[in-house]
Amino acid sequence: MAEGLFKEGIVGGRLESAQYAENFSDLHPPLDHHEALVEADRCYFCYDAPCMQACPTSIDIPMFIRQIATGNPLGSAKTIFDQNILGGMCARVCPTETLCEEVCVREVAEGKPVQIGRLQRYATDVAMEEGKQFYKRAASTGKKVAVVGAGPAGLAAAHRLARHGHDVTILEARPKSGGLNEYGIAAYKSTDDFAQAEVDYVTAIGGINTENGKALGRDYHLADLTAFYDAVFLGLGLAGVNALRADGEDANGVSNAVDFISVLRQSTDLAGLPVGRRVVVIGGGMTAIDAAVQSKLLGAEEVTICYRRGQENMNASVFEQDLAAANGVVIRHWLQPKQVISEGGKVVAIELEYTAMKGDKLSGTGEVVRLAADQVFKAIGQSFEPAALNGSGPSVAMEGGRIKVDGEGRTSLARVWAGGDCIAGGDDLTVSAVAQGRDAAESINRALIG
Predict the structure, then answer these.
(1) What is the pTM of this model?
(2) What residue spans of 41-151 are helical by DSSP H?
């Protein structure tokens, strides 16, 4: 259990039991058959469609929507899976409002884009519910590839490698596969244990062996993998959480938002999950929104997000910000944490300093405000922890605190590729991680058969 999540005064069961199920129901209920046909009919099927250009995995969006419109959801699902084998989860968690739907011609002309994400979910759900597999594993090449991490990048790489006939072993540190899809997103975005259903669907192609509870640097080393396998793909994700750099942040009641979300996602009794009465979340990204909204849904009376810059600088999309506001979360800007106030070692308040831009630099103004709080969540970004890569064999080159790769995902070490949040230049999106895992797998395949 994540340290700091539980303390005296933070209790569960603030709501009626039935309310929890309602609060954490599907954020975007699936379209039924008729709704999908009506929505698909709104698409103009643009030539050189801007929505397709905005998709990190380059899904042929006009094609899959046309296939839905003509009553062919399975064909539509294949069009999606050809580029993104995790298209079902991406349909649920991708910020489509800032990607494909933002550039939809309907959005530009009318302010109401085609609901591309929900149409993608419709098609992929049909295929998964019917157990329809579109790909057969090629004849075995006899080549062995290790994939470190069973998150979106690792799963996408493993599936594409298996399609080419390579034997894949996924080594995952956590008890379950799925990475952030399983542990790191709001429960109302992925209901009914969908993350595990998708893992099962992806690995059903065959040729993929998963070993859970195996951590790089603890149970094995990179040198072990390069000695035994023909190629290695690193999809390590981000394990570190940035500190507040505020006095007193070690007080009981201050914890990482990612830990809170992880505990919530694995809970079978939401009513039993403790939550503070007054919760303050520090950060401006998707994790901050997820932690804040879910705190409110668990029964917190007051939830406030504090972000050090202005609204236009928040990484969370306008849709996510509006979602927070609709759930009673207050978002305050131009505030940075200065000191956590505690009594008897327990959080009772947080002191924040107002900020302002001085030239091109963010600075404190010296003016402070104190907010009452019995629970504080840190959501100011995650960092890569390179320690697991050290201590065996040559070092992997780093750039900006993450793994340096070339255009095909190759690291500085021969026969070692990487993708997802752990690489330099990553944008921390599930769909981007899928694209990087897929493309690295193609590069690995070329190297193995070349």
Answers:
(1) 0.94
(2) 50-54, 61-69, 73-83, 87-93, 105-110, 116-129
